[in-house]
Amino acid sequence: MNFDLSDEQRQLAAAAADFFTSAASPGAARASLDTGAPIEPGRKAMADTGFAAITIPESAGGGGGSVLDLAVVAEQAGRVLAGPSLVTAARAAVLLEDDADRLPALADGSAAYAVIEETGGPVLDATTADRFLALRDGALVAGGGSITERAPIDATRGLADVTLDDAEVVAKDGVARWERALQVGQVVLGAEGLGTASKALELGVDYAKQRVAFGRQIGSYQAIKHALVDAFVGVEQLRSLVWWAAWTAEESPAELPLAAAAVKGMAAVVLEKAAETLVQVHGGIGFTWEHDAHLYWRRAKVDRFLLGDDVEAFDTVARLAIAGAAK
Amino acid sequence: MDFDDTPEEAAYRAKVRDYIAAHRGELMSVSEGGRRAVDLDAAKQHQSLMYDGGLVGVTWPKEYGGQGGTQMQQAIVNQEVAKAGLAGFIGVIGLGMCGPTVIAHGSDDQKSRYLGRLLRGEDVWCQLFSEPASGSDLAALRTKAVKTDSGSWRVNGQKVWTTLAHVSDYGILLARTDPDVAKHRGLTMFVVDMHAPGVTVRPLRQMSGVAEFNEVFFDDVEIPDEERLGEVGDGWRVALTTLMSERLSLGGGGTDVGTGLDAAAAHVAKRIGELPETRQALVRQEFGRQYAASLATRYTGYRQLSAISKGAMPGPEASAGKLAGTKTGRALADLGVRLLGDEAVYAITAEGDGRWQNSQAGLPGMAIAGGTDEILRNVLGERVLGLPPEPRADKGMSFNDSLRIGASE
After folding, report:
1. Which of B12, B298, B328, B402 could form a disulfide with B394 if both were Cys (CB 3.0 to 4.6 A apart)?
2. SS3 for A110?
3. How many angstroms away from the CA of A85 is the closest CA of chain B?
4. CA pair distance B81, B16, nearest whole angstrom
5. Residue A250 falls inside a structural domain
6. Would you state the CATH architecture of domain B251-384?
7. Inter-chain residue contact A251 with B2, CB threshold 8 Å
8. Measured between alpha carbons, how far is B57 from B43 in angstroms, rounded to an integer?
9. What are the structural domain ranges in chain B?
């Protein structure tokens, strides 16, 4: 058994950490929220570094990597609240996988796609997109759209309401790839959530070591220590699930639907817990606009509703597990 | 990344499977429904037969009768034993904790007298550590060993929560030999003959109704000095060997806590159709949450196994798996009981199934045994996250002085 990242994946993670920590930050996330400043690192930098095109084949100008490779990078993006989301890049790469014209444009960043959910509703990364992908009567379609921006809770997610115009058919029978794209997107969302949650945990731990109350560092109190440990256990559990689910995408596709739903649900729960713990451990300062804590908290409160919510995800897990057991 | 055996691991697994299959009829099965009292002779025979197949003492050195194998091979044996539904070993405490302690700290004479019989299941061993006044704070134990004029030791005191003491031949005993130094420094480890005069074992019935462990009283029990394990005053270090071995032998490795995930899925699949739609949605919500969490625990165990496969030793982070596994195991047991409908208030269903009720009553013990959830959170917080420790009111005090803390003036 070798359930661990490869040396290459660790190097990829280190390179991604270098890029994302210099190109994005909670400060940038706050500026987007305050003044509508551009989301960092932004589409161009994500395309130029090749991180957004990791799962696109080399023949189309991508990195020819696996979903697990992308998940390792997405974790680093999540740590600094980077945008646009690698979820959108990963989904578009699956949806356009056999499109000789559109896929290279996705890879080199000359086309900026976002994906409209089957049920409609807010579109992730819509504010930085100029093309939209959607499922219409079983067909995958692409086209321009009219965007209505709304007051964001987390500006880095680029959410907006979108009306699709002048769509053309990309694939007549798009249902199977649509579902797979959604599942891969859920895994990548979980990987970003893993990064966000683990960074939130680290910030909480750092503060608990510094802050003194009643003559002791607050991290020595079990009430604080145990809350942080519970967040830590969640993060490590989520990490295992993210790695496994990402691995199934290429290596065990029959398991992907359940694995993706499990990651989606668990990431929502773990990130929310880590972000709320971060605010609570900081006390009053953690509740201020100036402090970064609420930016992680905002990510948690929004991400739990993206690509379906946690309640729906756990229902899917149960349905698939029950169906598997009844066989 | 992969979940496959290496060629060596696959060959070893095949060997293990073949042996179990060839002797399945003579080997004991894990008991289902209600738990039974231990059939000692059958249990010893089961272990002896497994020993003949090289499946006992897998990681023990060859010179002491072990197989000289790897932790990964031990994990493979554990998996195959679980898969075949075989009973655990009556020597579980001896194999996992006492034996490794004797190997590390025993004299050549002790090793030659004890280890072979322990492996073959001829002697059963127990671990005499916890006491009524020292559970989580083990080093505060009070059982006294006083050196006599003849050079032997005289032991008085009481141990508790001692698994298998009622059928044990020997135990490793941690006792206080010097109360005038700090609590960790005044301890010494011994091998005690459980049939010696002055040893009294009383089974303790648990809230689950079964008696898996005991309280053990020592009244002027004589222990020869040759039965000391390690130096006088070095008992805490010897005990850490035992506890490290315990972590290895309990080391998760991706096996499920409680009734198991597949059994839970089968149970839900069978029962959910009998419920109204609104209840079905609630059951799916809870089951989906716990199923996802159980998978996360399983794959966290696989991460540990992979590290072990590369030669790493399990560290304190392994406690995270126990915390998470216990929590989900309890939640699944609760769901399992709920799904029994009217039968949920009885200890066993009309069809004779008591698995969910047993799990419900047994799993609270998992949150206490082998480190309470709270102690594990302290360990993780302090040793993995690097948070400052709890202040200790007895720090720097001799054991005798520390006894005054909390005593009425």
Report:
1. B402
2. coil
3. 24
4. 9
5. yes
6. Up-down Bundle (1.20)
7. yes
8. 16
9. 7-90, 125-245, 251-384
What confidence tier does B257 reach under pLDDT thresholds 50, 70, 90? low
Shortest Cα–Cα distance, B83 to chain A (Å) = 17
Q: Residue A70 and residue A86: Cα distance in Å, rounded?
A: 8
Residues A188-200, buried b or exposed e (16+ Cβ, 10 A)? bbbbbbbbbbbbb
The answer to whether position A17 is within a domain reads no
**Record: contact B387-A209, CB cut-off 8 A:** yes
pLDDT digits (tens, 9 = 90+) for B367-406: 998 889 999 999 999 999 999 998 899 998 999 999 988 8
Best mutation target, B385, B390, B395, to test chain A (most A CBs within 10 A): B385
Count how many Cα atoms sit within 13 Å of the Cα of residue A256 in the half-sphere of its side chain.
23
* Count of A-B CB contacts under 8 Å: 169
Give pLDDT tens digits for A181-236.
999 999 999 999 999 999 999 999 999 999 999 999 999 999 999 999 999 999 99
For residue A312, give the CATH number of its domain.
Answer: 1.20.140.10
Report the C-alpha gap between B257 and B247 in whole angstroms. Answer: 16
Do residues B23 and B55 lie in contact, with contact meaning Cβ atoms separated by under 8 Å?
A: no
A257 contacts in chain B (CB < 8 Å):
none
Whether residue A6 lies inside any domain: the answer is: no
Q: How many domains, in total, are found in chain A?
A: 1
* Exposed / middle / buried, residue B282 (Cβ in 10 Å: 0-12, 13-18, 19+): exposed
What CA–CA distance (Å, rounded) separates B171 from B160?
13
Backbone angles phi, psi at B215, to 5 degrees: -110, 145
pLDDT of residue B35: 47
Q: For residue A269, which of B90, B293, B194, B390 has the smallest C-alpha distance? A: B293
Query: Do A314 and A261 meet the contact criterion of CB atoms below 8 Å apart?
Result: yes
| Residue A326 pLDDT | 81
For the segment B78-135, what is each residue's pLDDT rounded down to a tens digit?
889 988 989 889 999 999 999 999 999 999 999 999 999 999 999 999 999 999 999 9
Q: Using an 8 Å Cβ cutoff, are B314 and B251 in contact?
A: yes
Give the C-alpha separation, B127 to B245, whole Å: 12
Q: Give CA B35 to chain center in angstroms.
A: 18
Please state the ipTM of this predicted complex: 0.97
**How many CB atoms are closer than 10 A to CB B87?**
18
Is B4 within 8 Å of chain A by CB? yes
Per-residue pLDDT reduced to its tens digit, A87-108: 999 999 999 999 999 999 999 9
For residue B251, is pLDDT > 70? no
- In a mutational test of the A interface, the residue from B255, B272, B300, B310 whose CB has the highest number of chain A CBs within 10 Å is B300
Asked, for residue A207, whether it belongs to a domain, the answer is yes
Given CA atoms B270, B274, B277, B283 in this order, what sign does their dihedral have? negative
Cβ within 8 Å of B, A 183-222: 205, 208-209, 216-217, 219-220, 222
Range of the domain at A257: 177-326
Q: How many CA atoms lie within 13 A of B179 on its CB side?
A: 11
Chain centroid offset of residue A246 CA: 13
Topology (CATH level 3) of domain B125-245: Butyryl-CoA Dehydrogenase, subunit A; domain 2 (2.40.110)
